[in-house]
Write a structure and sequence with these properties.
Blueprint: H1 3-6, H2 9-29, E1 31-32, H3 40-61, H4 68-92, E2 93-94, H5 101-137, H6 139-143, H7 157-167, E3 176-182, H8 185-192, H9 194-210, E4 217-222, E5 225-230, H10 235-250, E6 253-255, E7 261-263, E8 266-272, H11 278-290
Antiparallel strand pairs: 1-2, 3-5, 3-8, 4-5, 6-7
Helix pairs in contact: 2-4, 3-4, 4-5, 8-9
Amino acid sequence: MKPLLTLHYRSLLAVVVIANLVLLLNLGAGDIKPWNAIVWLDIAGEGGAALLSLIWIGLILNSRPTGRVTRLLVAGLTAIFLAYWQDVLDEFIQLPAAITWDHWLESGAMPLGMILLTLGIYHWHREQQAINRQLLKRERIFREHRSFDPLTPLSGAHYLREQLTLELQHPQQPVSLIMIDLHCFDHSRRLLGNADSDRLLRELSELLVLNLRQQDLLCRYAGDRFAVVLPATERTVADKLGQELKQAADSFAFKTRRGETHAVSVHIGLAVSHDDDAQTLIERANRDLARTLPHRHQAA
């Protein structure tokens, strides 16, 4: 199995167990139909729909991390699968007329699954909108054939300096800069290994993007340090946004490929422009960040 799929083995196991319980329940309550009573066209249609539901579940689990959106999508598709699965079993097993739970399973699981799937798609749409807003900010990089950071879906320190320089050309509007440092990342890399620690940086960057405003810009400054440009933002607002980013990151329960939870914590530094150039503003934000770090180190 691919790495992401292994993170969801409990979800996969739950689908298999529930499907088998429904099968055993039908076998225990009914009798196998004679061969000439089986309608193979119905089996092909209902069985094909059930199989496609399982395939969609596998594709989602193999392409997304754990979270609310993934849970809603998988729960919805699982309910739809169970409705079709019961339809398929009805073609092979004759249940007594007194039994009604099969009708509830067929008729109840389908609308429930559609509701859960719709909720999942809605939140997935919101999630993609936030990511797309960040991508639109980097459209100029595509036009100028500039490269992204090789690890995360973000721009690097060079683009950060360029955008700060552009924003600082309007001195009548304050520009705030937040530096975000991942706590003890060297220790995390030794503990998690290169593959999981790289994925941690990628998923953390996506989490930070989702908690930014449309006009804000997130860049990877260096190593485990990120920078957020807040145009036309005063200190009080910038400080509130910084605390929200810290709270979001500190609440992030990163899942390793082994399914273990790795706690995440960040430190933040803030600087607001006072007739600064880009480099001076970056240095002031780094100095403010250094005051919160255990060993008071600064990035280059």
